[in-house]
Structures are given as structure tokens and as C-alpha cells.
């Protein structure tokens, strides 16, 4: 499963893992949603429905990681490395355009690339 995150200028493609949470996000697509800055190494957006985190691995790792922060119900796109944090679950990794995550602004579209 691949998804594309796009603003007016930039495109990032993520390869989702086979977790329940990743599938839960995938089934909600397509989305047009606002992206927000958070902290010094991430962009976030809130899917309309909370993701099911059953059997989903914790997230920890490099820039380009796509994760879900269950306590707040937001999807996180990391443009800097990060450590393990309680309630943070791994959804996938950027396979194209990861260097543009930091530059995403305004309304983004989140769509399926492949089934």
C-alpha cells in the first residue's frame, strides 16, 4: 500500500506497512486536510476517524517515518529522526520526496497510489 501526500508544490510518497493502523488510515482515503507544524521535526494531520492500533508496532526511527500518535489521534510525518514515545505507532516510511516533508503547508491531499 502506497499513499501520496501533496500540497500545492510538494509530493511525498509513503509505503505503508502491513499493520492494522496503516490499513485503517488507507481505508479513509482520499482526504483533503490541513497539515500543521508540530515540534521541530514533524508535520501532523488529523484523519476523520481514529485509527485502530491493534497489533501495530511502536514507532522509532529515521526522518521519513510515518506514524500515528494515538492519544491525540493525529498522523505524524517526521522530517527529523525521533525516539520511541508512548502511544506512537509505526505506519510506514517515505519512499519518494521525504526531503519535502518539512516544506508541506496548508491544505494537503492524501490519496492512494496503489491498492
From TrEMBL:
<protein>
    <recommendedName>
        <fullName>Cyclophilin-like domain-containing protein</fullName>
    </recommendedName>
</protein>
<dbReference type="InterPro" id="IPR029000">
    <property type="entry name" value="Cyclophilin-like_dom_sf"/>
</dbReference>
<dbReference type="Pfam" id="PF18050">
    <property type="entry name" value="Cyclophil_like2"/>
</dbReference>
<dbReference type="InterPro" id="IPR041183">
    <property type="entry name" value="Cyclophilin-like"/>
</dbReference>
<feature type="domain" description="Cyclophilin-like">
    <location>
        <begin position="8"/>
        <end position="111"/>
    </location>
</feature>
Amino acid at each position: 500500500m502506497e499513499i501520496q501526500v501533496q500540497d500545492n508544490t510538494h509530493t511525498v510518497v509513503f509505503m505503508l506497512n502491513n499493520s492494522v493502523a496503516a490499513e485503517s488510515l488507507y481505508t479513509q482515503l482520499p482526504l483533503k486536510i490541513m497539515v500543521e507544524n508540530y515540534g521541530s521535526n514533524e508535520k501532523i494531520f488529523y484523519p476523520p476517524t481514529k485509527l485502530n492500533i491493534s497489533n501495530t508496532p511502536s514507532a522509532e526511527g529515521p526522518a521519513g517515518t510515518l506514524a500515528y500518535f494515538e492519544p491525540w489521534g493525529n498522523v505524524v510525518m517526521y522530517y527529523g529522526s525521533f525516539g520511541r514515545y508512548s502511544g506512537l505507532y509505526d505506519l510506514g516510511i517515505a519512499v519518494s520526496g521525504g526531503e519535502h516533508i518539512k516544506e508541506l503547508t496548508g491544505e494537503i491531499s492524501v490519496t492512494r497510489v496503489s491498492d
